[in-house]
């Protein structure tokens, strides 16, 4: 560490991030040198990857090796053209995406070269299809086997599919979160797939 290891808040775009190399770089919005983003810093944020062109807010510090991200504050997916990432996702689904519940899931497998993979919602054995373009539109570049994530699920023409993916802690209940209560206003176990099974 240098003598000046004070942290500074910076916003920028992810230039590239390679999960297999374990690092990538952020273009500083204010100019200056690229910012190193190490996979450990990203993992502390609950992610194993981040899509190129995602907008990030990070706390950075100067080190002998240059400017490095010390903490990720926020990640916003790359800007889209407003069209669905894949044909199986109707534009109406995207317009009402936030009304779908976030479901905790674990990645069964994902192959970036094939462009797809599957996850399982906790407590359910059904496979949920994940397309790489949905992944990218959600701000991820790749997924690791066993990685914990949250997904919004829809019934596609060939079965359950993820319409949006987020970090695993996005689904943690908040004090003001009422969407998991049943018709009587009671919290409790319920069928996580009821919204897609009917």
UniProtKB/TrEMBL annotation:
GO molecular function: nucleic acid binding
GO CC, any one term: cytosol
Biased amino acid composition, Basic and acidic residues: 172-184
Domain CSD: residue ranges: 9-74, 102-167
Pfam families from the UniProt entry: CSD
Location of the region described as Disordered in the Swiss-Prot/TrEMBL record: 171-198
Record PANTHER family: COLD SHOCK DOMAIN CONTAINING PROTEINS
Name of the protein this chain belongs to: Cold shock domain-containing protein
């Amino acid at each position: 560490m240098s003598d000046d290891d004070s942290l500074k808040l910076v916003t920028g775009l992810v230039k590239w991030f390679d999960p297999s190399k374990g690092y990538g770089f952020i273009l500083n919005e204010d100019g200056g040198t690229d910012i190193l983003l190490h996979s450990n810093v990203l993992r502390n944020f609950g992610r194993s990857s981040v899509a190129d062109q995602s907008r990030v807010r990070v706390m950075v510090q100067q080190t002998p090796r240059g400017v490095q991200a010390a903490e990720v504050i926020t990640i916003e997916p790359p800007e889209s053209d407003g069209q669905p990432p894949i044909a199986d996702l109707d534009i109406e689904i995207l317009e009402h995406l936030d009304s779908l519940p976030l479901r905790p899931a674990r990645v069964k497998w994902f192959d970036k070269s094939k462009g797809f993979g599957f996850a399982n919602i906790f407590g359910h054995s059904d496979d949920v299809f994940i397309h790489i373009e949905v992944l990218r539109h959600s701000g991820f570049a790749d997924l690791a086997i066993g990685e914990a994530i949250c997904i919004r699920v829809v019934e596609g023409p060939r079965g359950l599919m993820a319409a949006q993916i987020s970090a695993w802690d996005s689904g943690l209940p908040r004090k003001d979160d009422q969407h998991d209560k049943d018709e009587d206003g009671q919290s409790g176990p319920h069928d996580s797939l009821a919204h897609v099974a009917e």
